[in-house]
Amino acid sequence: MSMSGNHHVHLHDAASLLPALPIVIVIGMIAYVLAAVLFNRYRYGKPWPIIRTVSWIAGSLFAILAVTGPLSHHASIDFVAHMQSHLLLGMLAPLLMVLAAPMTLALRTLPVHSARRVTRALNSWLLRQLIHPVMTAFLHIGGLWLLYTTSLYAHLHDNKLVYLFVHMHMIMAGYLFTASILYIDPVRHRVSYRYRAAVLVMASACHGILSKFIYTHPPDGVPLEQAEAASMLMYYSGDVIDIAIIFTLCCQWYRAAKPRASQAITHPSVR
Q: pTM score, two decimals?
C-alpha cells in the first residue's frame, strides 16, 4: 500500500473515535435545555433568560460542526479547514457556552444538598488553581503552541487517542480560559478586572505570535500555502473573538464601577 493510502487509513481510524465528543456535547445541550425548562416550571421569580439558552445551543452546535460532517473530514486533509475547526471548537463555542452561565443554572435547579456539594467542589483549592486566569491561559495558549510547533500535529492523524485528546483539550481549555476571564458564573475567589484584562491581552498576543510563526514555520506535513492561509485565518478571526471577550469584560467592569462612581458624586467627601 502506498504512503498516501496509509495516511488515509490513519485518518479514518482516528476519526472513528471522534463521535464520542459530539455525543457528549449533544448530551450536555439536552441537559441544559431540560434544566432551563425545569427552572421555568418549578421556580418562582424571573424565568431563565432565553438568550442564555440560545447561547448554549449555538455554542454546542458550533462545537458539533467542528468535529463532525464535511468540516471534520476536510480538517483531516486540509490545514485551513483544521484551523476553521480550531476556531469554532476552541474559541467561538467556548465563548457562547460561557455566556450561557451553565453552572449558575445547575446550582439553581439541583437539589439543595447536591448544589452544596457542587459549590464545595468549585471552592476547593485544586479547582481554584485550575481556573486561575494564568493557569487557564497556559493550558489554552500553551496547548496550541505545543500542537503546532512540535510533531504533535503530525501524530494527530496517526493515533486515535491523540486525535480525541487534542479535540477534547481544545474545547475544555478554551472554556476554562474564557470562564476565568469573564466570571459569568459565580466565583468566590476572584482576581481583579485589571489582572484579568492583562492576562487576556498577553494571551491574545501569544495567540497572534503563534499565528505569525505558523505562517513561516508550518507544522510537519503542512504545505506552505495552506499554512499561510490558515495562519491569516487564525490571526484575524482570533482577534474578532478576542475583541468580543474584551468588550464583554469592559461592560462588566463598567457596571461594577458605576455604583461606586454614582455614590461618590451623590455623597462627595467633605474637605
A: 0.87
